[in-house]
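Structure ticket #2291
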Amino acid sequence: MDFISTIADLIILNLLFIICSIPIVTFGAAYSAKYYVAMKKVRGEDSGTIVPFFKAFKRNFKQSTIVWIIMLIAMAIIGLDWQWIMYNGWTETPMIYRIGVIVFSVIALLMTITAFPTIARYEMKTTEVFKAAFIFIIIKFIPLALILIFIIGSAVACLWYAQWFPLIYVFCSTTITYFLCIVFIKQFDKLEKAQADKLQALKESVEYDPETDAAGNISLAAGKKDIKELEKNLETQDEEEDKSGNKLTRFLRKEKKKLKGLTAKQKAQYLAQYYLPGTLVIILLIAAICWYAFDVYRDKMRVLAGGMINCYISEEGRAYATEGFLDWGGYPDARTAAVIDAEDLSFSSDSEYESKYLEVSFRASLLTGTYDYLIMREDAVYNYSTPDYFQDMSDLVNMENFTEDDFYYYVATEEEKARSKKGISLQDLLNPGEEEDEDVPVPLALKLTDDIERKLGLDEQYDYYLAFAYSTSSTGNADYQKFIEYLFGKC
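Resolution: structure written out below.
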């Protein structure tokens, strides 16, 4: 229960950290406050969570903010360097420049990880903070590098599996905080022991002068004074250890003995203080596991999920594209096929900023497997049908069964050709090693016939196209081909 309570406190700390970091400029103070309390929790010091967090936030605000602004400026400069590399192309940038940017990026990230816990632990000048953080990186480079890889991996996981973001964030942030605290505590304890030994040796020497050597000539200042504990441990007389029975029965007897003689109110306070956080964490964890297990099951049972851009289908058309397809394909009753509401895919906007945001959202929707296929009105096809988003239809259908007029062909512009040489596309990630001739038109969307439009209940005054996202499942393309055959009667 102590361990579960510690985990619960770390979860609360990470939530407080996120809330207090929202203004961005307060990130440093929130980060140092989080590790001030977290290290106490991992040490087993019961000093509360919320109150100590805000006290540390207030006490370290000035220095942490200064350090954070300096780090923010450094990371902004590094970000501009990365932007310059991406603009010029990775292979076109000199190797020495690339290596330098990578090295400084790693140092900046590790400095961010180590500087603020150092501020939380010690009272020192700002210049000394950077010096101490850099020395800490050198001493503990391997564990810090492994934790940094885990941080980057967790960020990628949150983006890749966006629908599971809450569970991934809670698990990863708590794990990272716990292991970072262990690394910091071990090194801080080792450092402070060395300081104490050095100071003791200095005191015992004949040259020691308390007035001139008050600080012991130690590179780091003495540890900060701990705030008063919210609750003091009650001193109890030593009792003979109870070794009868197993661990569970001994634990129950011990707790029963603690509750004996307490009033109902005192018992409620005791249970709320020591068991409520852990119990809530267990309940939430079980609920999260059940929720995501159901989500995994539902995703596994899904055959295809479709979406629409700039078009609407009737209820009869929805049934035709889902239940009708499942019945025709002979899928088991437990399998599902979904057609998403059209209003969820309104990607057009008059604002340039909103258009860029919507494009990122669109990419994320396809990348995370939200949509297997899209039905698009002809104006949307021209805006969104690129090899970055959709599969080459020649990989899904027999081109001899269709005419050229049945497809929308993508031809890269000169600007797109130049941009593709300097970046990595979604197609590159999902199909590594495949090179595409950019001058050859690519069939990305298949035009719906008038008969299909009527069955789906689409407005027949427009033309509509069907396009398929890149599939990550083992049966993805086979299901795609089945759906094409279901709609067109051929594939």
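Closing remark: The two ends are 60 Å apart (CA to CA).
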